[in-house]
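User: Reviewer 2 asked us to show a designed sequence for the structure in our supplementary figure. I'm pasting the structure tokens here. Could you produce the per-position amino acids so we can include them in the response letter?
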């Protein structure tokens, strides 16, 4: 079977994966070691952001164990469900981590009485929060706007519309007619109360599927599929970068 990712890509992903544990520990240590001026800022950082970072680490570790990079055989239904749970939790906590950092800034700068709760965030529309940041950080956030959009889309789909899922497999164009014919015969077997024939045809049909480690939500509303091993690593590194830049901002206001 043809791999979705090339061997060098898989090796690169595994190399990045090997750094996640140390990166997580460094983030958590820097959060707990920071001297916050405001108690709520400290709580949102230590019990909100840092806790979420630990969850992100565990989600990545779990997905790499449940569906390793380079998997070509369609995983069992239970493994697909378990994998989906990890990605769903991951996206929810990436979104939450961004909000936690915004709240840390708001409380630490004493802006909570000036900015309505619904306006707290780090995106372009969160003008008052952005105004409290350096021009350099604002520019970097502008560059991340596409990433913010992707996280928001997938989080909103998960919370309000179609939950994120891992498709069981794709069908090559040359096998599409055979796949559809088997589906027709499966439906006929089901309608005629022939469960054994249905299972036989289903097993035959599954052989035509090629697994791709991607995540999506609505077929009609999604902006695309994303390969979850790569994306989860990239998202973690982005959250790490956001914390490092936010920490630098907080230190400026204390000097």
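Assistant: Here is a per-position design you can include in the supplement:
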């Amino acid at each position: 079977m043809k791999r979705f990712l090339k061997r060098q890509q898989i090796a690169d992903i595994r190399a990045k994966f090997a750094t996640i544990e140390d990166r997580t520990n460094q983030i958590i240590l820097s959060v707990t070691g920071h001297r916050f001026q405001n108690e709520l800022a400290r709580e949102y950082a230590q019990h909100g952001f840092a806790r979420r970072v630990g969850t992100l680490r565990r989600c990545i570790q779990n997905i790499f164990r449940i569906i390793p990079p380079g998997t070509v055989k369609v995983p069992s239904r239970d493994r697909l469900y378990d994998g989906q749970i990890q990605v769903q939790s991951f996206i929810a906590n990436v979104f939450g981590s961004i909000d936690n950092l915004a709240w840390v800034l708001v409380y630490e700068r004493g802006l909570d009485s000036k900015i309505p709760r619904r306006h707290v965030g780090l995106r372009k529309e969160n003008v008052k929060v952005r105004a409290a940041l350096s021009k350099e950080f604002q520019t970097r956030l502008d560059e991340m706007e596409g990433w913010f959009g992707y996280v928001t889309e997938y989080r909103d789909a998960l919370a309000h519309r179609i939950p994120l899922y891992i498709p069981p497999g794709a069908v090559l164009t040359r096998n599409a007619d055979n796949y559809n014919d088997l589906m027709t015969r499966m439906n006929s077997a089901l309608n005629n109360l022939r469960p054994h024939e249905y299972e036989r045809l289903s097993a035959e049909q599954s052989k035509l599927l090629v697994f791709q480690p991607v995540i999506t939500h609505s077929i009609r509303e999604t902006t695309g599929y994303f390969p979850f091993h790569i994306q989860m690593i990239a998202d973690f590194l982005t959250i790490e970068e956001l914390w490092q830049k936010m920490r630098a901002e907080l230190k400026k206001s204390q000097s």
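For the response letter, you might also mention the following. The chain has two domains: 7-165+223-254, 170-210. The first helix runs from residue 7 to 17.
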